[in-house]
Amino acid sequence: MTSASERQRFEDLYDVERHVMATDGGILVEDPYPAFAELLREAPVHEGSVRELLGYERGGLSLLRDGPTYTAMSYEANDTVLRENTVFSSTFYAGLTTLMFGKSILEMVGDEHRRNRSLVQHAFTPKRAQWWIDRWITTLVDEAISAFEHDGRAELNTDLCARIPLQTITASFGLTRDEAFEFREGAEGNPMRAADPAVAAARQQRTAEMLHRVIEARRREPRDDLITMLVQTELDEDEERHLLTDDEIYGFARLILTAGSGTTWRQLGILLVGLLQRPELLAEVRDDRELLRRAIDEAVRWEATDPIFRRLVTEDVTLCGVDIPAGAIVEMNLGAANHDPTRWDRPERFDPHRPAKPNVGFAGGPHVCLGMHVARAEMWVAMNAVLDRLPNLRIDPDAPNVRIIGLEHRGPNGIPVVFG
Ligand code: HEM
Asked: Could you report the per-residue pLDDT of 130-167, keeping only the tens digit for each?
């Protein structure tokens, strides 16, 4: 494959504006934070979905279930919903994600969730981040930057941000570069998936075959990769132990492809834009890499790429003074929680110098993002390479207005830069 056609495929699969059209009902919100702040001033929890509270029609995943909808706005309200997972239940996703990945940890609760998550957790610990860096991330970042380093300009969304997460995860599955695209193109969670059901089904079939082939090969001959780890994992169920089945591994692979490659590209873009829009900060993180580490978490607080998630209420409950009946949906507005002024001063400001404090951009409680250390590692290696190898980096002064757009899936509309 020529690099031009590869670039085109990344451009097609990872275009924030097209994603917003496909997933956010075309709502190209540029900055929802002033409206979130106003709502939070009024109350920590509101009746209505985020979209309705912003004046749009109910939409997105909330349409999946009937029942009254409430939105958690404050940090305390969101933190409670995240932690109390039996009352505010992840079974909200049951059905939806079952169709996409088979029954996944995303929709499980309690012991079932703990047992299944612990099977894969060991591949995603903070210590394991270095394994991901050494095995895949460093090489992939190096290759991406080498391709444009001498051009004096690049579009960092396509040329860097889109590549690293997809290629890292699919390389950990043992797929080739070409197969990586097919896997993403055929993934059920991909909003840019083919509209024609026959084409989508054929791609899905191909994807399943691809992965089953790798699983079979790793059962015969183990390697140092994620699929090998998964084929060697034993599930303890009803006092019987069994190895994960091919379908269980395939379902998990599809989950982390969607969760990992559909998010980190936008969050890395947000980090880059936050720094490029403040050249003095870019210079500071170039000289102080500990500050860069803090800038990564600050970007997740400032502009969480996926700020809205949902739970199903399983019993009558009072949340921050608001009575919510069993059967209701609660939308967690993690974006609003991360801008709660009782927790952060001038929350609208991207400021890596703030005192470190946990935020909920990677969620929290039992479903806290499984891949957060991999995501941080990808952003860390990519940003270090950008700082080391692209001198005098700035937003292309001739390019159209660079801005962060979207409601449920936020990211920059493009990152055209010049350097050297
Ligand atoms: C910056 C990038 C990322 C962000 C902002 C992010 C955010 C989140 C959030 C908010 C959740 C909670 C969803 C819920 O409870 O309803 C979540 C769950 C999850 N994430 Fe991430 N994620 C990122 C990257 C990744 C990566 C790279 C992977 C895998 C390699 C990953 C795998 C998962 C999985 C498997 C879950 C489900 C965990 C569970 O239900 O126990 N994520 N993520």
From this structure: 999 999 999 999 999 999 999 999 999 999 999 999 99
11-26 pLDDT, tens digit each: 888 888 887 777 777 7
Core vs surface per residue 5-27: b (16+ CB within 10 A) or e: eebebbbebbbbeebbebbbeeb
Q: Where are the strands (E) in 77-233, listed by range?
A: 88-89, 153-155
**How far, in Å, from the CA of 154 to the mean position of ligand 1?**
29
In degrees and rounded to multiples of 5, residue 61 shows phi and psi of -65, -20
For residue 41, count other CB atoms closer than 10 A to its CB.
9
CA of 258 to the centre of ligand 1 (A): 9
- Print burial letters for 54-63: b (CB count within 10 Å at least 16), e (below 16): eebeebbbbe
- Which tokens hold the place of 368? 């806290």
Ligand 1 atom closest to the Cα of residue 268 is 1
Query: Tell me: the pLDDT tens digits for 293-351?
Result: 999 999 999 999 999 999 999 999 999 999 999 999 999 999 999 999 999 999 999 99
111's enclosing H/E stretch is helix 110-121
Question: How far does CA 279 lie from the centroid of its chain?
Answer: 26
Query: Does residue 116's CB lie within 6 angstroms of at least one atom of ligand 1?
Result: no
Protein residue with least CA distance to atom 31, ligand 1? 371
Å from CA of 266 to ligand 1 middle: 13
Tokens of 291: 């500050």
Give whole-number Cα distances, 370 to 117, 124, 203, 375, in Å: 8, 7, 27, 10
